[in-house]
Amino acid sequence: MPYAKLDRDQLAIKKLDDRKNKVYIEKDHIEVNQKPDHLSELGKKLIEKTAEHIRFARTEKRSVMLTFGAHTIKNGMSPTLIALMEEGWVTHLSTNGAGIIHDWEFAFQGKSSEDVRENVELGQFGIWDHTGFNINLALIVGAYEGLGYGESVGKMISREGLQIPEISFLYDEASVKMNTNPDLAAAAIDLAGVIKKYELKAGFRSIPHPFKKYSAQARAYELGIPFTGHPMFGHDIIYNHPMNHGAALGRVAQNDFLSFAKSVSNLDYGVYMSIGSAVMSPMIFEKALSMSQNLIMQKGGHIDNHYMLIVDLAKSDWDWQKNGEPPMDNPAYYLRYCKTFNRMGGEMHYLTADNRDFLLAIYQELSGK
């Protein structure tokens, strides 16, 4: 017999307009010409070295991947991310579910970041209408359209709305595709069920995003650059909304993982930068690299010449590239993400830095500004 489940339809969902926020993107964003404040001389040299590898990778048409935690977005760094894309320095961006949400909230209302302690106490953390409704709807529509997680949300922001099909069309398509394309048929049924439940009108559903110029995922969508989202179920506030649909989320997240893996397969002589992501980035990278090696080895090749720079606030004096994995009595051993990346072959360096300082420095070094 199935376990009892909490009924999200019974939640008292409040308007996003009523939520207090701590970050306002127009006031708090960081311009690309702001000078980084706290980089050591060793850090500056490492950034110069990384920039050299990025220039070579782009000349050779190899992947330059930038994976980051949600604080990169919350810290107002989208202008720098956008500049790195527009000037052709990065070929793939990826973040977690919270990074997707902050980017969307900034584009939609110009502000983000609620008080977690206060709102959990009030039984209100993450239980907001527009964020839960719109992002989940974008993912359900995106699953039907065969898109990825970040691509679905980026498309909604860029186009300032979603195209809602007729229910009858979806049912007909599901019937026709049931044997030839069961994934599409299932996604069509999922979308039809949501349209019916929420009585959504067919046609273009306008969702204005007056601050979309600050959205990195929207700009990535417009430039055709993969911006992938890698969520973990239950980690993000959109799971609190009854619109949330696990099957649809799984489809778009799987599409993004495979897109991420495709970029990793082109990483020989390429660059992978991981910023402030202690769990998501190393976990998806090791699986993607393993699959990529499997396929390339079948053709007699191997990925050996990838360059990895890992950036985080935790201090470490250990030279991972020179000395390998530290002994268990050294605190550096417990920088789990460094340990994972160090086991991935290639060349790996660790930089202790704030994500704002690093991104500003690497962009200014690359652009010569």
Helices and strands in order:
Layout: E1 23-24, H1 25-28, H2 41-59, E2 64-68, H3 70-74, H4 78-86, E3 92-95, H5 97-109, E4 111-112, H6 116-121, H7 129-145, H8 149-159, E5 161-164, H9 167-177, H10 182-198, E6 203-206, H11 216-223, E7 227-229, H12 246-264, E8 271-275, H13 280-297, E9 307-312, H14 320-323, H15 336-342, E10 347-352, H16 355-367
Parallel strand pairs: 2-3, 2-8, 3-7, 8-9, 9-10
Antiparallel strand pairs: 1-4, 5-6
H/E series: EHHEHHEHEHHHEHHEHEHEHEHHEH
Q: Count of DSSP helices?
A: 16
As for the CATH topology, it is Rossmann fold
CATH homologous superfamily caption: putative lor/sdh protein like domains
Task: Report on this structure.
With 369 residues, this protein is α/β, with parallel strands linked by helices. Helices cover 49% and strands 11% of the residues. The protein is built from 16 helices and 10 strands. It has helices at 25-28, 41-59, 70-74, 78-86, 97-109, 116-121, 129-145, 149-159, 167-177, 182-198, 216-223, 246-264, 280-297, 320-323, 336-342, 355-367, and strands at 23-24, 64-68, 92-95, 111-112, 161-164, 203-206, 227-229, 271-275, 307-312, 347-352. A 6-stranded parallel sheet has the order 7-3-2-8-9-10, with helices on both faces. A two-stranded antiparallel ribbon has the order 1-4. Strands 5-6 form a two-stranded antiparallel ribbon. The radius of gyration is 21 Å and the shape is globular. 46% of the residues are buried.
What descriptive keywords fit this protein?
single chain; Rossmann fold; 16 helices; 10 strands
